[in-house]
Amino acid sequence: MIVKAILASALLAAPVGLIAPIALAGGTATCGAAPTESSGAIDQTNAAPRPPSEADCKTPVETSERLPGAEQAVARALRLVGSHGYYQLCARLAANIWGRPRAGYFSAAEQWRQMVATNQAHPDDREPPTGALVFWETGGPYGHVAVYVGDGRIVSNDIGDAVSGEGGVYLVDFELIESQWGARYLGWAPPIYSTT
């Protein structure tokens, strides 16, 4: 526990802003500037969020039924269901669900690698807490990430599109990514985003 706190402090103080958590402090304010919402979608024109301070944020630790801030994230996720414009933008969708305008990673695969490298990943764990980012290897270079909303369900993009390029947002069963796309489940991680 002390090692995690020291690691989190070092990462938050790093001059290059390697990673910082996007958990909610005290359950009321998001780390960084909160994007505005319009018609259930996140406004993509917002300025870059400020880097969170140590006082603002804490890294979610230990698996629990719900990550800090998950209630607000799930509410955002459910408001986004039925919207469009997320074609091949799973990392952005997950970031938007967690109140961020962008993920800060080139792809879901890169984000997963970063979570593994910083010991934030929970490989092969099929019991993510509510609000967790869940990752799959898709056979391509980008991978896939969605947000677990509880009861065996995720909010994901593209999975229900009738027409390629639609970029729809859907509430679906956790296993559908594997059964429909043939993807391999990697595991889950807390919502930690780049500050740059």
Describe the structure.
Pfam families: CHAP. Residues 85-149 form the Peptidase C51 domain. It comes from Kribbella speibonae. Residues 37-47 have a biased composition (Polar residues). This protein has 196 residues and is α+β, with helices and mostly antiparallel strands. The chain has a single domain (2-193), classed as endopeptidase fold (from Nostoc punctiforme) (Alpha-Beta Complex), CATH 3.90.1720. Helix content is 24%, strand content 19%. The protein has helices spanning 2-13, 70-80, 90-97, 108-117, 176-181; strands spanning 20-21, 37-38, 41-42, 122-123, 133-137, 144-150, 153-157, 169-173, 184-189, 192-193. It has a six-stranded antiparallel beta sheet. The protein has a two-stranded antiparallel ribbon with strand order 1-10. Strands 2-3 form a two-stranded antiparallel sheet. The longest helix is centred in the N-terminal third of the chain and has 12 residues, at 2-13. The model is unreliable at 1-64 (pLDDT under 50).
